[in-house]
Specification:
The complex is a heterodimer of chains A (120) and B (199). By secondary structure, chain A is α/β, with parallel strands linked by helices. Chain A has helices at 11-23, 34-43, 60-68, 87-96, 108-118; strands at 3-7, 27-31, 48-52, 78-82, 100-103. Chain A has a 5-stranded parallel beta sheet, sandwiched between helices. In chain A, α1 (11-23) crosses α5 and α2 packs parallel to α3. Chain A is globular. Chain A starts with a strand and ends with a helix. The mean pLDDT of chain A is 94. In chain B, α3 packs antiparallel against α6 (136-155). The longest helix of chain B has 32 residues, at 3-34. Classes of the chains: A alpha/beta (120), B mainly alpha (199). At the A-B interface, α1, α4, β5 and α5 of A face α1, α2, α6 and β1 of B. β5 (100-103) of chain A pairs antiparallel with β1 (169-170) of chain B, so a sheet runs across the interface.
Chain lengths: 120, 199
């Protein structure tokens, strides 16, 4: 079973991602910010990270940067979920090493389709 | 769990989360009155930003749209473009009260408190506007973002698709730490694979 880490400071968003992906047969872990996420991936392998952008303690961009500096996470797909649609923010995400970007609000089918596309 | 059950469950999760966030904003605003600290401004911005994003996800369109207006002001404050004055914190506290009204109104009743909303939006805009006049690009970005919110809100109930596939970019391969634009599909390479295409 593939494992996905959902990182979001919003409990509603974590629940939405978990419901959607668990329903499709993925194991879903949750983290509340970038610091929490790094702690969780340090101890185990995950097959994909889905992260929010704006979070306390460590934001999504910094999380991606730090995850990409870890050997096991160099090529693990990382998706950004965010309300930011500004091109410069996308550039920032891309430069940090994000695999993809989904703008909120999105629906469950869209999330699932994107996850299935990037999951290897 | 079917679609409808999921939405119901997410909406109740959001009710709890949003109530907490609004309480946090209230107390942060009161702190700001005494001490206009950057970290507190950031906290207010983040809470309002979460209300906007998660509210839109559960279909609370009026709440999300109005939260966006409040967010714009605190984004400007966070970026040092405007000063947090007692007038602003006062206005923001009133905005929080209206967000609570919208939170309680799961049906997003169009006319509910529309007079109050109008009044507050005008006042909020007045805070941001003088600062953005010198920067037309910023001014142009505001309504575009708002328009997206309106479109998704107006066209959507719950989880219906509101975004084109172009809002999703997919990298062909991310080469770890030094990912550059060359690692991504060129624009137009595939419908759902346009990197960083505008939605």
């Amino acid at each position: 079973m593939k494992t996905i880490l959902a990182v979001d400071d919003s409990a509603t968003m974590r629940q939405m991602v978990a419901f959607t992906l668990q329903g499709a047969g993925y194991e879903v872990l949750a983290a509340v910010d970038g610091v929490d996420a790094l702690k969780q991936i340090a101890g185990r392998h995950v097959d994909m990270i889905i992260t929010d952008l704006n979070m306390p303690n460590m934001n999504g961009i910094e999380l991606i940067r730090q995850a990409r500096s870890l050997a096991p996470y160099k090529f693990v797909p990382i998706l950004l979920l965010t309300t930011e649609s500004a091109p410069e923010k996308k550039q920032e995400g891309k430069a940090a090493g994000a695999t993809g970007w989904i703008v909120k609000p999105f629906n469950t089918a869209q999330l699932l389709a994107t996850v299935q596309k990037v999951m290897r | 769990m079917d679609h409808k059950e999921m939405l119901t469950s997410l909406r109740s999760a959001f009710q709890v989360e949003a109530a907490d966030l609004l309480n946090e904003v209230d107390s942060s605003l009161l702190q700001l009155e005494a001490n206009p600290d950057g970290e507190i401004i950031h906290r207010v911005f983040r809470a309002i930003h979460t209300l906007k994003g998660s509210g839109a996800m559960v279909g609370l369109e009026r709440l999300s749209r109005f939260a966006h207006r409040v967010e714009e002001v605190f984004e400007a404050a966070r970026d040092g473009e405007l000063r947090v004055t007692p007038e602003l914190t006062d206005l923001a506290l009133r905005a929080c009260d209206l967000l609570r009204v919208f939170l309680a109104d799961a049906d997003s009743t169009p006319d509910l408190e529309s007079g109050t909303e109008q009044q507050l939006v005008t006042a909020l805009k007045a805070f941001v506007k003088p600062e953005t006049q010198a920067a037309p690009a910023v001014q142009a970005a505001g309504p575009a973002v708002a328009a997206l919110g309106v479109r998704s809100a107006a066209d959507c109930s719950g989880f219906h698709v509101c975004r084109s596939p172009a809002s999703v970019f997919l990298a062909r391969r991310v080469s770890a730490t030094n990912a550059s634009s060359t690692d991504l599909h060129p624009a137009g390479a595939g419908n759902s694979k346009r990197p960083f295409a505008r939605p």
